[in-house]
Amino acid sequence: MSALGDRLSGSLYGLGWGGVKKLPEPAAEALGRRVADAAWRRRGAGVRQLEANLARVEPGASVERLRALSRAGMRSYLRYWMESFRLPVWTPEQISERAHILGEERLRADIASPRGVVLALPHLANWDLAGAWLTTHLGAPFTTVAERLRPESLYDRFVAYREGLGMEVLPHAGASAYGQLAQRLRAGGVVCLVADRDLSPSSGVEVDFFGETARMPAGPARLALQTGAMLLPVTLWYGPARQMWVRVHPEIEPPETGGRREQAAAMTQRLADVFAGGIAEHPEDWHMLQRLWLADLPERRPTAPGPSEAAGADPAGRPAEADRADGGGVERARRGGAGDGAGEPV
């Protein structure tokens, strides 16, 4: 992106944070739906990839069903952004009224234990809202990682936003970030990682995901194995009347046999299975606008360009600048690049 593009991107996000949070809530919700519907009708690279991903989740779905799902998915995705722009001005009471946790008592007990907790979740609903509930309702600060973004002002804004919600945000810096996450867990802390997509061939684990091979980060399992922390899958979905539900699943325990690498792979597969269950129940809330399955990646595909490539999507599946309006720009800012094994930056 050019320096001018960097400044424009930073200005647009600044407008979002500065302007949307001042709108009455019904107006912000209506704005989100209008933007989502406009992007859906435009059928840019992100929307087309979302439909291709949803076709794996519902393999027998008709074209009409996939179109309806993708439209609902874009509305869910823009709901995430409208909420995120407004989260900094919500009171703890407002956050608690919106986020409903299934498995709260078990989560309280796990966090109170000295073992440390790794919470691993997919791109479902609004993990920032869940994180805000964790820090305000349970009084449990946690640590996550973030990719450095351009422009620097945008990265600083994202870090300040999440730190303002009570999160500790580490810069995504390979082994350094991983080591700090391990330290937090050994001290009995909580680490949260988005863990349903990893395109780094050196660290990702191949898993069976909806009947096809995808790659997911081994970091959550590796951290749990190395530090003795609990690995807890989390799935989320939106409900009516501005509600969001969060299910904290039972601990994924290490297998009794096999070496560390085999154990991490088995735990990552179990994590993928839990994610698949949550996504299948609420596919419209899965904000996956990039290529995920190995069969969709350029190195596994014919040399002739497919629909997303012909439209200008980069090899990681992020829409090019021309497709920013359909989720490419905000998704790049939300997730950064692919993880290095510690879990995807968030």
Sheet having the most strands: 5 strands, mixed
- What's the helix-strand series? HHHHHEHEHEHEHEEEHEEHHH
Q: How far is the first residue's CA from the last residue's CA?
A: 21 Å
- Estimated helix fraction: 40-55%
- Strands ordered across the widest β-sheet: 1-9-8-2-5
Mean pLDDT: 81
Radius of gyration: 19 Å
How many helices? The count is 13
Structural class: alpha/beta
Residue ranges: pLDDT <50 for 5 or more in a row? 4-10, 301-346
- Strand composition percent: 5-15%
Write structural notes for this entry.
By secondary structure, the chain is of the alpha/beta class. Helices cover 48% and strands 14% of the residues. It is built from 13 helices and 9 strands. The strands form 3 sheets. Strands 1-9-8-2-5 form a 5-stranded mixed beta sheet, sandwiched between helices. Strands 3-4 form a two-stranded parallel ribbon. α8 links the parallel β3 and β4. The longest helix has 24 residues. The chain is globular, with a radius of gyration of 19 Å. The two termini are 21 Å apart.
